[in-house]
Amino acid sequence: MAQPRSGPARNVPRTESNKRQGHSRLTSLNPDNLIEIDHVTFGYDASRTILNDVTLSFERGKVTSLLGGSGCGKTTLLRLIGGLAQANQGRVIFDGEVIDTRDAEQLLRLRRRMGMLFQFGALFTDLTVFDNVAFPLREHTDLDEALIRDIVLMKLNAVGLRGAADLRIAEVSGGMARRIALARAIALDPQLIMYDEPFAGLDLISMGVAANLIRTLNDATGSTSLVVSHDVPECMAISDHVILMAPGGRIVAQGPPRELMDSTDAEVRQFVRGEPDGPVKFHYPARPLAEDFGLATERA
After folding, report:
1. Contacts of 200 (CB under 8 A, 6+ apart)
2. Which of 41, 87, 282, 293, CA to CA, is 20 to 30 A from 299?
């Protein structure tokens, strides 16, 4: 995989042809990569930059985990790849094609090749388990109901919930809901599956089940998986490649799981081992405590 590169973020010129089409077909920087993040800078407003000149790549057919503390830009990367936000500078390339959020036709076409497991499932509570999984098939295909039924039951069987097809969402546990959401995410046999905190709120057994499912489904379908998580052991166990991020989208380290676990870098060791003391500080930057107490005394 490509290593992070430094240098100023840059805008990509849009030719007249690109303006008309809304996107361009490119030769990937590396044909082995499904996704390229090319010198991307992004912030939701001018006051805070979340990603600053980030360059990453995600290899086809692999499970890649994005690890890091809250606010470092992990979920933002998923949003950029899914076309839910547009990079302020740089390019997000999916299978050789620059993603352009202004091109609705392109977004619809590319999203059919993507599956997304949201952090809290985002299931339709007024639908049954079956109808939740059937939803993308009914929305994006012209398949008849008999074939949809077979596909839905097959996907539910893959996550161990074929017997729960007729239940309402209110009748299932949190771990089951996460598996139902996964079945829905793979309903269209996506080329890319993105997982946003798939282990959050799960007990240890459900967490292990979810981790095994991610690995098994990736290998069985030949898809590419991106996992955003804080859970180091699960990600290290199932990933081919791990990327450790810090605030500002800074890439602290990346490589095979064993390489990061054996790292002697203080920041990497602190995160992967959960050590309380190290380069990552507990306290948000502030004035010396004595100054604040002094101000309080003066005001009194």
Report:
1. 119, 229, 230
2. 282
**How far apart are the C-alpha atoms of 63 and 92, rounded to whole Å?**
19
Query: Token pair of 252, please?
Result: 């602290």
28-86 pLDDT, tens digit per residue, is 568 889 999 999 999 887 778 899 999 999 999 999 999 988 888 899 999 999 999 99
Q: Which amino acid is at 143?
A: L
| Tokens encoding 15 | 């030719």
DSSP 280: S
Give strand pairing partners of 124: none
Widest pairwise Cα distance in the chain: 77
Rounded CA gap, 51 and 83, in Å?
16
Rounded CA-CA distance 75/229 in Å is: 9
pLDDT, mean of residues 247-255: 88
Lookup: tokens for 24: 């361009």
Cβ(249)–Cβ(243) below 8 Å:
no
pTM (whole model) above 0.85 = no
Which one-letter amino acid corresponds to residue 2? A
Per-residue pLDDT at 281: 52
* Chain center to CA of 232: 15
Paired residues of 255 in beta bridges: 242
SS3 (DSSP) at 115 = strand
Q: What are phi and psi of 18, to 5 degrees?
A: -65, -40
Cβ-contact 145, 134 below 8 angstroms: no
